[in-house]
Write a structure and sequence with these properties.
alpha/beta, Rossmann fold, globular
Length: 297
């Protein structure tokens, strides 16, 4: 892992494959680090002939933290949005999209295939709509459009996500127990849940560094992003939308709405997949991303 100056901050990143190959940049989801794009996933994608780049979003992992910013007041945020006002937030998804562009600049990459999961899919959508000359193809995984008419997360899932987590330094087992319960709940029922692998991933994130308040600030960024369907309608890059039919956090209707909002997008639902990319679907997902990338090239 190394770091690069991008958009006025430092982003931690690493890569797989030959630097001479076309680049695929992977954008992580809400509050999670680049290692959620696991090494086996990245290696499989690189083996298909790409330089695969993953990075920690701002306010996560080893990238620049915004800890000096106060925690968002979600009550005030909701009140402002319901009144049609845009509240002040520490940063926006557009800022996070500019971070990714800054990383491409730092690595001297003119154009890349862009892949994002969950919140990362929203950032990837903004990249493709606002920085079209930098995007060869777009893959949006388990993400959404911001359409207010879409179904929301299952109530118990939302409650679990918003529940304060124990401090992993003073109560590591409590921290792991809560996060594993959430990971199991959103994983979907079609594939085995590998608790040991999830546990190891969580411990790796703790070792790399958790950012108090980072997830809340990213939630605020998503909250003010609004309905992006107008922006999605302008996307020209070849687009693939992947969504699990068993996703309780961002329901499948959100994936189909994303595909319907982007001209010519291909929709790839996956039975049994929840809000996760289990190893059992790596082959199919990487093949689909590569197939789209070939078209985008």
């Amino acid at each position: 892992m190394t770091s690069a100056k991008a958009n006025g901050i430092e982003l931690a990143w690493d890569s797989f494959g030959d630097a001479a190959d076309e680049a695929i940049i992977l954008i992580a989801g809400l509050g999670t680090q680049m290692i959620r794009w696991t090494a086996p996933f990245c290696e499989r994608l690189a083996a298909l002939g790409y330089r695969v780049i993953r990075f920690d979003n701002r306010d996560t992992g080893c990238s620049t933290r915004f800890s000096a910013c106060s925690a968002p007041d979600f009550g005030a945020l909701a009140t402002a949005l319901m009144a049609g006002r845009r509240p002040d937030v520490p940063y926006t998804l557009d800022d996070m999209a500019a971070d990714a562009i800054g990383l491409l600049d730092a690595l001297a990459i003119d154009r890349a295939h862009v892949v994002g999961r969950s919140m990362g899919g929203m950032i990837a959508q903004i990249l493709a709509s606002e920085h079209a000359n930098r995007v060869r193809s777009l893959t949006s995984i388990m993400s959404s459009t911001g359409n207010p008419a879409l179904p929301q997360a299952a109530p118990d899932v939302m409650a679990m996500m918003m529940q304060p987590a124990p401090d992993p330094i003073t109560d590591q087992e409590g921290f792991l127990s809560q996060h594993l319960a959430f990971a199991r709940r959103i994983a979907g029922g079609g594939y085995p849940f590998d608790e040991s692998a999830h546990r190891a991933l969580l411990l790796d994130e703790v070792r790399r560094g958790l950012v108090p308040g980072g997830t809340a600030r990213q939630i605020a960024a998503m909250a003010v992003a609004g309905d992006r369907r107008g922006r999605l309608a302008t996307i020209k890059a070849p687009t693939l939308v992947i969504h699990g039919n068993d996703d309780p956090l961002i329901p499948p209707a959100c994936g189909s709405d994303t595909a319907a909002s982007i001209p010519g997008a291909i929709y790839m639902p996956i039975d049994g997949m929840g809000h996760d990319v289990p190893p059992e679907v790596y082959r199919a997902v990487t093949a689909a991303i590569s197939g789209l990338a070939r078209a985008g090239s």
